[in-house]
Amino acid sequence: MTDIEITExxxxxxxxxxxxxxxxxxxxxxxxxxxxxxxxxxxxxxxRLHGESISDCIIRVIIITLxxxxxx
Length: 72
Prior knowledge:
With 72 residues, this protein is of the alpha+beta class. It has one domain (2-68). 49% of the residues lie in helices and 17% in strands. The protein contains 3 helices and 3 strands, in the order βαββαα. It has helices at residues 8-17, 38-47, 54-68; strands spanning 2-6, 25-26, 32-36. The protein has a 3-stranded antiparallel beta sheet with strand order 1-3-2. β2 (25-26) and β3 form a beta hairpin. The radius of gyration is 12 Å and the shape is globular. The protein starts with a strand and ends with a helix.
């Protein structure tokens, strides 16, 4: 497992689209530290744009997926 740090907005979007048990912990800066498995980490690194934060990458992937499904 790898821990990633994501913003509150990213965590809220993930929770809204993909129900999951409350995992991770809130950091003093307001972000969240969340565990991800090796396959998820590998996939995120594959689609992550140069200079893009992990939160921005996750948000972009969710928006694209919703758009492709006709939900946006």
